[in-house]
Specification:
The protein has 375 residues and is α+β, with helices and mostly antiparallel strands. The chain has two domains: 172 residues, Aminopeptidase (3-Layer(aba) Sandwich), CATH 3.40.630; 191 residues, Aminopeptidase (3-Layer(aba) Sandwich), CATH 3.40.630.30. The protein has twelve helices and 15 strands. The strands form two sheets. Strands 1, 2, 3, 4, 5, 8, 9, 10, 11, 12, 13, 14 and 15 form a 13-stranded mixed sheet that branches. A two-stranded antiparallel ribbon has the order 6-7. Helix 4 links the parallel strand 4 and strand 5. Helix 1 packs antiparallel against helix 2, helix 6 packs across helix 11 and helix 7 crosses helix 8. The longest helix has 17 residues. The two termini are 19 Å apart.
Length: 375
């Protein structure tokens, strides 16, 4: 067995398609959602503005012509500058259930990061906290929500046997739509609405660039003190917004304004993983027809982001945002409710708010770390 490193776009097809081979005809195939190959190629393309401040090296484990695993080593210079920490990342980790293969993949990734001056490695990040991240450690018996990862339970052992330790856990919450909001929350929402000069509105698709900028300002203000956060540039927000544009249901994308100023927002999207599961990574003419048919049957959402500008955090605006998302699910046909993800395990303010609204933790993800002098 050998581990070979490559610079993209070299071996990009093999790197992207390895999980398709790994999960095929296994007990985990039932819950793994094949990503769109075309979208992954866009993500790794130099057109993605993330790579203007980051670089990546990919590694493939091979034996007798068969691929056994993959991993990427990622250096995000914006993270290093923002946190003043020489931290590199690993991501896109997939591997057969073999500790030797996993360990060798991760050792090679660590060697590269150390050679680039990094002192610690964390992951998985695919490729950052603004995208998919974390290793699933609880909740293996259902599909992941859109833009959330899935992996077999044995990945935890591979990580720990390779010398990685917990850095932080992330929570995914489940909130059924059928359950009424708690009466106490309804009273709080009514009180706040009367007390503050609050305007609630949906994202305006006709003013896409304007509202995307409003969201970026709220996002960067709301998350700036969060563990692992990296502010997104205007170019990155624009790129992400264009990618999400076909997925957005504006009835699930909300702003709160005070005195005409957007101060809080939620971004939720229909859970397209329900559809992607049926497409096997492709988007040809037949898959487009399948997509158009099945998207009408989506009855679950993912609340991807909720944020309140720092200046307005003591006003209880989160309660209104949670309430409005729940009401939107019930009003617009998302009868199964949704997932709220992800939240940091120690973000008590947000976690307590979700719990008060009737949310329950149903999946947990873990970010691992290792010193680059560790074996």
């Amino acid at each position: 067995m050998k581990v070979v490193s490559y610079n993209l776009p070299e071996k990009i097809d093999e790197f992207i398609k390895l999980p398709f081979q790994l999960y095929k005809n296994t007990e985990y195939e039932k819950f793994w959602v094949p990503p769109l190959i075309s979208e992954l190629k866009k993500l790794f393309s130099i057109k993605n503005p993330f790579w203007k401040h980051s670089k990546i090296k990919i590694f493939l484990a091979e034996e007798n012509g068969k691929l056994l695993g993959r991993v990427a080593a990622i250096i995000d210079n914006n993270f290093i500058e923002f946190h003043n920490e020489k931290c590199g990342f690993f991501g896109y980790f997939d591997c057969v259930n073999n500790t030797d293969v996993a360990r060798q993949l991760l050792i090679e990734a660590k060697k590269y990061l150390k050679s680039e001056g990094m002192q610690i490695v964390r992951g998985p990040m695919n490729p950052s906290t603004n995208d998919e991240c974390g290793l699933l450690i609880e909740g293996f018996d259902s599909l992941p929500a859109i833009m959330m990862p899935y992996n077999p339970p044995y990945y935890m052992n591979l990580m720990e046997d390779s010398g990685f330790k917990k850095a932080k856990d992330l929570y995914a919450w489940l909130r059924p739509a059928k359950d009424d909001p708690p009466p106490r929350i309804v009273k709080i929402v009514e009180y706040i609405r009367k007390k503050e000069n609050i305007k609630f509105r949906h994202f305006d698709i006709k003013n896409f660039e304007r509202d995307a900028k409003y969201f970026k300002d709220i996002y960067n203000s709301a998350w700036e003190k969060n563990w692992g956060f990296v502010p997104m540039s205007d170019e990155e927000i624009d790129y992400m917004a264009e990618g999400l544009k076909p997925l957005i249901d504006t009835r699930l994308f909300h702003f709160l304004e005070i005195d005409g100023i957007p101060v809080a927002a939620t971004l939720a999207v229909p859970d397209y993983n329900f559809v992607l599961k049926k497409l096997n990574g492709k988007m040809g003419p037949l898959e487009i027809l399948k997509f158009l048919y099945w998207k009408r049957k989506i009855n679950f959402i993912r609340l991807m982001a909720l944020g309140v500008k720092k200046k307005y955090r003591t006003k209880g605006l989160e309660a209104i945002l949670y309430y409005e998302i729940l009401m939107a699910c019930r009003k617009y046909g998302y009868s199964e409710g949704g997932e709220l993800s992800w939240t940091l395990e120690d973000n008590d303010l947000i976690n307590n708010g979700i719990s008060a609204m009737g949310g329950k933790i149903y999946k947990k993800y873990r970010i691992y770390e290792s010193g680059l002098n560790d074996n």
